């Protein structure tokens, strides 16, 4: 079933608050965005920014206080039996049947949607858990349980997939392998909505990202456009002993210098000029160059203070 050419998800003036009038927390405060069919869409924000609450309202798990949500052309709330088989949901914390093995768990999920056991077994293979098929869920590591959760969300081939911090418990190798799987989800027309704290993950996977904080939408665009709009300085790091901090500040085109025991980092908006000067002074050994990143955008919008 298709969505008649409209967006897969449309959210208008969405709001959700908790507490009473004396201690009101606006978890989601007037958020509006849409997600196109086949788009890989990211929602980024600090802890407590409203990401998970937004997802739960779109998924039909939580009732909005205000605003409208259209998911695959229909309203997800109250719980809509026509929509549920068409979406897949991976939550931050998934409760499994502890006494089941990984194979039994995913086959049970598959059976709820009329999916054959062989398809469930294929998904165990795709998320790298074939060798853990006969392991009880309570004996899986955190990362293995996370991969099983993702497989369970995808086993019935949903049109829209919601992934809430899917790689949070994974080691770097497992994260990279899972990126390869996730990046192919939209190839067949699926729509994917992702929340993550890993900015590199969002840059690699997402067509567009929405950055939210304190329940409000701050920016929405492609990662590349957001980085370009920031006009962040280029960071050029040189290895210890190449030049002193005072010598670095004297290099033509350098705006600022960060010096520590490990290296000296030059900040500039004229990288070609600075690199030319360093080459002339024969200071290019061990040099590294980093342009602006999505993390720079995120920090410029949300600040650097610790969040609970």
Describe the model.
- It is a single chain.
- The chain has helices spanning 51-59, 102-112, 117-126, 142-154, 172-183, 199-205, 223-230, 245-249, 271-280, 294-302, and strands at 9-18, 25-35, 40-44, 66-71, 87-90, 160-164, 191-195, 208-213, 216-221, 234-238, 256-259, 264-268, 288-290.
- By secondary structure, the protein is α/β, with parallel strands linked by helices.
- The chain has two domains: 35-61 and 79-228, P-loop containing nucleotide triphosphate hydrolases (Rossmann fold); 233-291, Alpha-Beta Plaits (2-Layer Sandwich), CATH 3.30.70.
- The strands form three sheets. A six-stranded mixed β-sheet has the order 5-6-7-3-8-9, with helices on both faces. The protein has a four-stranded antiparallel β-sheet with strand order 11-12-10-13. A three-stranded antiparallel β-sheet has the order 2-1-4, covered by helices on one side.
- A hairpin with a 6-residue loop joins β1 and β2 (25-35).
- α3 (117-126) crosses α4 (142-154).
- The longest helix has 13 residues, at 142-154.
Please tag this protein with its features:
24% strand, single chain, Rossmann fold, 308 residues, 2 domains, globular, alpha/beta, ABC_transporter-like_CS, antibiotic resistance, 4-stranded antiparallel sheet, cell membrane, Alpha-Beta Plaits, 6-stranded mixed sheet, 13 strands
Which CATH architecture of the largest domain would you pick?
3-Layer(aba) Sandwich
By secondary-structure content and strand pairing, the structural class works out as alpha/beta
CATH topology of the largest domain: Rossmann fold
Shape: globular
Beta content: 15-25%
Order of helices and strands: EEEHEEHHHEHEHEEHEHEEHEH
* Alpha-carbon distance between the two ends: 42 Å
Gyration radius, in Å: 23 Å
- Please outline the major beta sheet: 6 strands, mixed
CATH top level of the largest domain? Alpha Beta
Low-confidence stretches: none
Mean pLDDT across all amino acids: 90
Neighbour order of strands in the largest sheet: 5-6-7-3-8-9
Let me know the number of strands.
13
Number of helices: 10
Structurally, the number of domains stands at 2
Helix proportion of residues, in percent? 25-40%
**What is the H level of CATH, i.e. the homologous superfamily of the largest domain?**
P-loop containing nucleotide triphosphate hydrolases
